[in-house]
Amino acid sequence: MAMAGKLLANKVAIITGSTKGIGFAIAKKLALEGATVVVSSRRQENVTTAIAELKKENLPHLGVACHVGKEEDRKNLIEQTIKKFGKIDILVSNVAVSPHFGLTIGITEKQIDKIFDVNVKSSFLIARDCYPYLKATKGNITFVTSIGAYKPFVGGGWYSISKTSLLALTRVMASELAVDGIRVNCIAPGLIKTDFSKGLTENETIRNKFLEEIPLGRLGQPDDCAGAVVFLSCDQLSSYVTGECISMTGGIQSRL
Ligand code: NAP
């Protein structure tokens, strides 16, 4: 835990779903700012690949396989972190699923359950499980929601509804945990080029329709989402910011 002088020196950060895409970009940026990052996702081979990347740049890390929907995995993720580093300062809850694309009326109950189990319930549960440690460090939590929280995606109705719920979760937890000195915020990415969004970005018609709406005229990259998380995770930069959401959408409007 070296890197004195950096914004997040001596901080320990858990980032869920962080072996690729937006989660990995966030982990890398937090590490470049001095944090020791705990990288995780369901598949051990993805964890191994991600930590090899961090190793190449000499960035302090730990890799732990963790399915956020499994209680024993969340417990193990936290235990391994505490065993190795003794504390948790930052939690970034990044995992989401979207098992249904199409008219909202066509979704099955099982698909709705999966969306809410992973996107909302597991996001809360990992935050709840980390709470005693975050209380000890007066740490902070960032949830990853979506532009869909404000402007529901055509074809991704229930996914969007789950992401709007994360806005509410952020506000509820921010007001309840303020007394413990824990700040809780979220980020809302627009259309970002990752495996998750391939169905949209690799379909020319859909991609062009999105591009027409993006004032900056390009799709986002995972790294476009990471700087805001450094800001929200860093007390020197955002000590009076809680219950907020920062959007990175290339200009698609997300509020009044
Ligand atoms: P991605 O590139 O598909 O990466 C997802 C990551 O999460 C992978 O590391 C994956 O690894 C892991 N993961 C998936 N399910 C998991 C689970 N149940 N438990 C633990 N880890 C899991 O996705 P992304 O585009 O970066 O999306 C990250 C977040 O950004 C999501 O919350 C998404 O809703 C949000 N977002 C994305 C976009 C976009 O356009 N891409 C836009 C707005 C918001 P394993 O397969 O090894 O588990």
From TrEMBL:
The keyword Oxidoreductase applies. It comes from the Eukaryota. One of its GO terms (molecular function) is carbonyl reductase (NADPH) activity. Keywords: Oxidoreductase. InterPro entries: NAD(P)-bd_dom_sf (IPR036291), Sc_DH/Rdtase_CS (IPR020904), SDR_fam (IPR002347). SUPFAM superfamilies: NAD(P)-binding Rossmann-fold domains (SSF51735). Pfam families: adh_short_C2. The keyword Oxidoreductase applies. PROSITE patterns: ADH_SHORT. Signal peptide: none annotated. PANTHER family: DEHYDROGENASE/REDUCTASE (SDR FAMILY) MEMBER 4, DEHYDROGENASE_REDUCTASE 4. Belongs to the short-chain dehydrogenases/reductases (SDR) family. NCBIfam families: PRK07231.1. This is Dehydrogenase/reductase SDR family member 4. It comes from Oopsacas minuta.
